[in-house]
Amino acid sequence: MTESEIIRGCKRGDRASQRELYVQTSERIFRLLVKMTRNQDTAIDLAQETYLRAFDRISQFNGDSSIATWLYRIAVNEALQFQRRKGMLPLPPDHDSSAASAASEGDRTAMRMDVNSALQEMEATDRAILILRYQEGLDYRQIAEILDCPAGTVASRLNRARDRLRHALSGSYGTEEEMTRTEHLRDVG
Amino acid sequence: MNCRSTRESLGAYLDGELPVEACAALEAHLAGCSTCAVELDSLRALARSLEQPPTKGVPAELWDRIERGLQSSTPIAASSRRGAVFSRRFALAASVLIAVGLGGWAIWSFNGGASVANAATVDFSVLLDALPHDAVGAFEKFLSKYQARLVSPAEARNAAKQLDFEIPDVLPGGFRLEKAYTMRFGDEAGAAASYSRYGEFLGAIFHRPVHREEFGSHKDYDCVIGKHRGHAVAVGDWKLVHVTDATTCHCVLSKLNEQSKLSAVLSAVAPRSSESSPPNGHSDLHESSNHGG
Fold first, then answer.
1. Burial bucket for residue B290 (CB in 10 Å: 0-12, 13-18, 19+)
2. SS3 A141
3. pLDDT > 90: what percent of chain B?
């Protein structure tokens, strides 16, 4: 089935079309929700709500974006609402407190673990934009549609989120990130 | 291009989002500025560190849960479909309790235009037992038990036309509406709504006055809140307050008390409860288990 056939079928309430849309998109949606919530059970609940809400609102889908982007938007909103209701999520149970010392040896796996910890400590919308760009591989236009913000602000929001992530990581490693200071900057025409 | 403008553009350049003409200027700057080149390497390393190994696949149960939600929906209009929301944690309990709830309802009788359940029970123990530590989870358990479906406030009122209640967008005290639901108490429609104020939860439930309410091991007591007469069950800081008029039992779960807007909230959701409520706050048929008032 083509995407337009799937959408038309979903608007009719056709179960086969709904199933096909789910088959084509669920891996991405579920993966995103696992990354945003770091909890598989929560991700399952939110994925269920995402699809039920999507099938409920499918008549409002006007084709301005792809159906996958539209689903991402619903999923991100569900996750952000959940996180606002529940507050900060705890670190995953497999968090390794020895990661910081391993990271000083340039161990990339340990750095990834620390990045995950730092991500969880970030504000939810900062975390969302970093996940959408660097873990879901979405471009700025898609991110703008999902987060319902002007395309021109995605770059600046990503800059801000990256800076905050590096600030959080600099605390993990015990090193000072110098790049926020400006003495080294020089005007070169 | 200077260092400041270069730094602002490095992220977009790394992401392949910088316009071609700006790329040339940026690359020319990088060729002559080791500091900005190091910054680019740092951003590249950060992006690589964010990459994740593949997550586990989608659980097979997910589609089953979605399909159950779709199958249990009842179209309000021919062109619309609604879905029920069942939590994975409560699905099994809900399937058992719904069967019990349905078995507890008698045939409705009609008397002069008023519909009354002759013998029916609403079981609040599943909600009360989960208090005080997780009021949201407690409320969701109750919603799941009585087949809650997420709808708009207007749809909730339309689906439960025989009831008299309001679901305002904002309640006194600043509680903002988060979600509205239709519910099924046997063959009878009810409604519910969840509110939040800076992370503080408030839940409202509306159902037909019933013959009996179950509170499990918790005791209820008669109370007067402003102009409202009703009865309440307290668990820790949480109160489940019931005020009943001729057609509707309005239940509010909150941490509010008489001094903190509870009376105003009750007036907002039960605008006519003080006009026609029975002297003891119960319907004529009502009896509750563990009544301690």
1. middle
2. helix
3. 37
pLDDT attached to residue B168: 92
Instruction: Quote the ipTM score.
Output: 0.71
Kindly report, residue by residue over B241-257, the tens digit of the pLDDT.
999 888 899 999 999 97
- Identify which of A40, A52, A165 has the shortest CB distance to residue B66: A52
Å between A177 CA and nearest CA of chain B = 11
Nearest CA in chain A to B18: A155
Interface of B with A in 1-40 (CB under 8 A): 1-4, 7-8, 11-12, 15-17, 29, 32-33, 35, 39
Query: What is the tally of structural domains in chain B?
Result: 2
Predicted model pTM: 0.47
Domains annotated for chain A, with CATH where assigned, are 1-89 (1.10.1740.10), 91-177 (1.10.10.10)
pLDDT digit string, tens, across residues B192-214: 999 998 888 999 999 998 867 88
> What CATH number corresponds to the domain at position B108?
3.30.200.100
How many angstroms separate the CA of residue B198 from the nearest CA in chain A?
A: 9
Which candidate from A53, A135, A158 shows the least CB-CB separation from B51?
A: A135
In the structure, what pLDDT confidence band is assigned to residue B273 with cuts at 50, 70 and 90? Answer: low
B80-96 b/e (C-beta count within 10 Å ≥ 16 → b): ebbbbbbbbebeeebee
Measured between CA atoms, the residue of chain B closest to residue A130 is B50
Estimate to the nearest angstrom the gap between the alpha carbon of B75 and the chain centroid. Answer: 21
Rounded CA-CA distance A145/A137 in Å is 14
